Amino acid sequence: MRGGVTVRRSGNPVTGESAPVTPEPVGFVSTRRLAGVATAVRAFSRARRGNSILEPQSGWVRPNFDRFVAIRRFGALDGLRAMSAIAVVWAHTSVTLGPAVLGVNLFFAISGFLITSLLLRERTGSGGISLRKFYARRALRIFPLYYAMLLVYIVLVAAIRRQSPEGIQFFNCLPAYATYTFNWLTPGNIHVPFSFAWSLATEEQFYLLWPPLLVATLTIGGWKRTWPPLVVLALLIAISQGIGLVGDSSVMPWRIPASLSLPILLGAAAALVTSTRLGFAVVSAVVGRVWSAPVAAVLLVVAIAANAALQITEILMVVVVVATCIVEWTPLHPILRWRPLAFVGVISYGVYMLQGLCGDAVRIAIGEQQRILIFVVTLVTVVVVAYLSFRFFETPVLKLKRRYETSGEHEGDELSRIAALSRPEVPQTVCDKGAY
Predict the structure, then answer these.
(1) Do you find a cis peptide bond into 253, omega within 30 degrees of 0?
(2) What is the pLDDT of residue 2?
(3) Is residue 144 within 8 Å of 394, Cβ to Cβ?
(4) Is residue 175 part of a domain?
(5) Which of 41, 111, 228, 343 has its CA 20 to 30 Å from the CA of residue 82?
(6) Which pLDDT does position 12 carry in this prediction?
(7) Is 433 a member of any domain?
(8) Would you list the DSSP string of 245-295?
(9) Tens digits of per-residue pLDDT, 382-424?
(10) 346 within 8 A of 418, measured Cβ to Cβ
């Protein structure tokens, strides 16, 4: 017990090596103990009756600003990443592209919220934001696998499809692939090999544009004021959504501002708002209830099924991301933290990069008729191949990436998350106030 905070200590039971001490709020409730909705409801009812076993102010069932701003690894995000990746695999194996766009947009919402949150935490912890280290981390995470896969595609297309219309178009697009500008210069043919690079181009452009703007606006407005970067985000959103009123957003140069992703910008805005006590209080009053994330998820599913406007689904995606991050326990968390799903989430970048080749190989092997079978076999195949890529190709680079991370950032990186999934779960108890 430290200053009214219960401390949980874990470690390797074989070597006896201690893991870092993680402070937990009084009344800590493990999601492993609360395995389902009914259990959660019973726990809440006991808390509200004054049961001393679970206090109602537990940080795991109610939003807590101090705990939120200290978090480096949001436990539910890997589950959301996995769902995004699975949606992309389904779309590319069923030739139904709607789920692919939605899956990528969920990735964007996660990215905007997480990248901005981590940059703001870096500012709080060190007094500033190092753009040099940020770009080193991003380059080491994204570039090696991206350019390795681009090289594989060049070899395969040159050997197999060089004279086909798709092959000719691929080599025409090669400069755009190499410079992360395919989303600006896309020829409109979704079947060009490596065309999924449009989403990675969108991400990279966000990384180039937003962090310098964030640092500049925070510096000009004062490090404690978040309204200047929020104003900039509002302008970017207005430009990206309204550029079609000025010109044809499908052609250059109007294509450039139109390519700004709404969910990634909204995710960044949500991170800024929740980085202040007042903003966190306002947001948590709406999406900080234990039922907020499930309700938002249901509304998202309904919006998708009803073919609602894309902007509505994108807003709901951001709401789902925020709701699962500011409250560390909701009825969605047992699903999102399920180890097989979280595992896919950790290696989701490899899944996204490799799903095209794996899908083509599966279709060659079993034919084009059985769509469900193609999806299942492709998903299993790409998860295995992506893990091998993660283990033997990406991990050495990720170790190098750690040179540019703070100790706090280590907690949330891919190596720490995959290591956490490989450790056996240790049964935990709910701690009463004053107990260890």
Answers:
(1) yes
(2) 41
(3) yes
(4) yes
(5) 41
(6) 43
(7) no
(8) GTS-TTSTTTHHHHTS-HHHHHHHHHHHHTTSHHHHHHHHHHH-STTHHHH
(9) 999 999 999 999 999 999 999 998 777 777 788 888 888 877 6
(10) yes
According to the model, what pLDDT value does residue 188 have? 53
The residue assigned the tokens 């966000």 is 206
> What is the tally of structural domains in the chain?
2
Report residue 86 as tokens: 């699975």
Together in a domain, 191 and 339: yes
Query: pLDDT for 146-156, tens place per residue?
Result: 999 999 999 99
The pLDDT, as a whole number, for residue 39 is: 35
- Domain annotation covers residue 432: no
Based on the domain organization, do 284 and 233 belong to the same domain?
Answer: yes
- Say if CB 285 and CB 65 are below 8 A apart: no
Short-list 118, 122, 116, CA closest to 213: 116
Do 374 and 232 reside in the same domain of the chain?
yes
Contact at 8 Å (CB) between 98 and 117? Answer: no
**Do residues 2 and 78 share a domain?**
no
Share of the chain above pLDDT 90, in %: 54
Alpha-carbon distances of 359 from 75, 174, 194, 363, 379, rounded to whole Å: 30, 22, 13, 6, 8
User: DSSP 3-state assignment of 24?
Assistant: strand
Q: Can you give the residue range of the structural domain that contains 9?
A: 1-61
Residues 6+ apart with CB under 8 A from 428: 8, 30, 32, 33
- Same-domain pairing of 152 and 219: yes
CA distance 147 to 137: 16
Asked if residue 170 and residue 301 are part of one domain, the reply reads yes
In a domain, 180, yes or no: yes
For residues 1-16, give the mean pLDDT: 40
| pLDDT tens sequence across 16-70 | 443 343 444 333 333 333 333 343 333 333 333 333 323 333 445 678 898 898 8
Among 61, 80, 103, give the residue marking a domain's end.
61
Q: How confident is the model at residue 72 (pLDDT cuts 50, 70, 90)?
A: confident
Check whether residue 244 and residue 276 sit in a common domain.
yes
